[in-house]
Amino acid sequence: MSLRINLNSASLTAHRTLSATDAALGKSIERLSSGFRINSAGDDPAGLVISEKLRAQISGLGQAIRNAGDAVNMVKTAEGALNEVHRLLRSMRDLAVHAANTGATDAASVAADQAQIENAIQSLNKIAAETMFGQKTLLDGSAGIKATVIGDKVVSADFSYTTGLTDGAQISINVTSAATKGVVYSKDFGGENATVGKAGTFYINGVAISYSTNDTVAQLRAAINAVSSETGVVAAQTTAGIIDFTTTRYGHSATVAISSAGDILDGVVSAAAVGTDAAAQVTVGGSAVSDALWTSGDGLVLKDSLGNQIVLTEAGGTATGNKGAQFQVSVGTLIFQVGAYSGQTRELNIPDVHAYNLGTATYAGQSVATIDVTTSDGAQKAIDILDEAISTISTIRANLGATQKNVLESSINSLTIAKENIAASESTIRDTDMAAEMVEFMKYQILQQAGVAMLAQANQTPQALLALLR
């Protein structure tokens, strides 16, 4: 028992213990009321560092999910507009097929078809120029890699599947293999005015050509050219008296097959030939744009393994040699941030779909914008041009759909799962285990009550010394 009155050590000990208990009880109340185990850095410095990093990642993932959602809506906007472009192209093709039926259509009907086609072209260009998401135009080439022609050996290009190009870069072309047409030669009749000498019928790509004994080579040539829109073959002349059965187009799809032509060919009944495709090196700053050699095209059309395309002019594709810089690119690639950290992006290019940029790979110098169905040959070419344009739009829509489904929506799914799991980890570190904390709270309440009681008892102890002073 203490016999001192100036220093009550028991009281001080009880007070110290009560103060510690009160502080612990206050911290427990803070955790229970806030729901967080860590409310300040002093609660768990290491845990705070880890949890703040996880919080930043969770917040970033949430924004990335919203970003991907915006990107999906942008892609849907573009794809919806392209659906209408498809409808217009199909309508134009129907009109071209109608105009090609020259046996039953008159000039007024064909003129009406042409007028409707021109109206559709205006609508198509309006869609290309005015389809927007916010203030961003989507279908005029500004939302992708737009290639401006600066040379005279190319018609157009699509670099939508290229990465790494910089704004203002110039693309050069070196043609290593020239495009050719398929050619079969007739026998030498001796001159343009020489007669065939026999009557008969032969076939060019399945189309019958009849001739009589007195038909001259010039007349036979005219008869062949009269059906060139059906056969895809013209009767050219490099030597008088010899007919050059030449395909109208270049490349491996340009075929000429002559059959039942024993009187026409030189000692054989049938013969066939196909054209060859152009191949070229496509470079920017001396480095290949993609493939070392673009060989996947057809005729005057160069393609690489990624799907990029260049359309050469006839002069550019039928002679080998370095053509120099032909394009200057403007890069407006759409970049979507679909991750919580830098560099976690996805890219998308949407080509220009103006009429002048569609169907350019079919006939050199022609496109949807130049369609003229007022002639039989023009109507036939229009069908081919529109078929190619429809295929191009289909490819663009398929690319947009693949990006939406396999890139953006897939990213949303994976990001949502990641956010859920990381949030669970952050909660484990930061949040209060309410059941365990209630146990601690009750303990501190009891200790507080006991501490108050013991402090009161300790304060009463020195009063026992008063008995010595009586």
Structure, described:
The protein has 470 residues and is α+β, with helices and mostly antiparallel strands. It has a domain of 93 residues: Alpha-Beta Plaits, CATH 3.30.70. Strands 3-17-5-13-14 form a five-stranded antiparallel beta sheet, with no helix packed on it. A four-stranded antiparallel beta sheet has the order 8-7-11-12, covered by helices on one side. α2 runs antiparallel to α7. The longest helix has 56 residues. The chain is rod-shaped, with a radius of gyration of 41 Å. The chain starts with 8 loop residues before the first helix and ends in a 10-residue tail after the last helix.
N-to-C order of helices and strands: HHHEEEEEEEEHHEEEEEEEEHEEEHH
H/I helix tally: 8
> Globular, elongated, flat, extended or rod-shaped: what is the shape?
rod-shaped
Tell me the CATH topology of the domain at 182-274.
Answer: Alpha-Beta Plaits
Lateral arrangement of strands in the main beta sheet: 3-17-5-13-14
Low-confidence stretches: none
Approximately what portion of the residues adopt beta-strand conformation? 15-25%
Annotated CATH architecture of the domain at 182-274: 2-Layer Sandwich
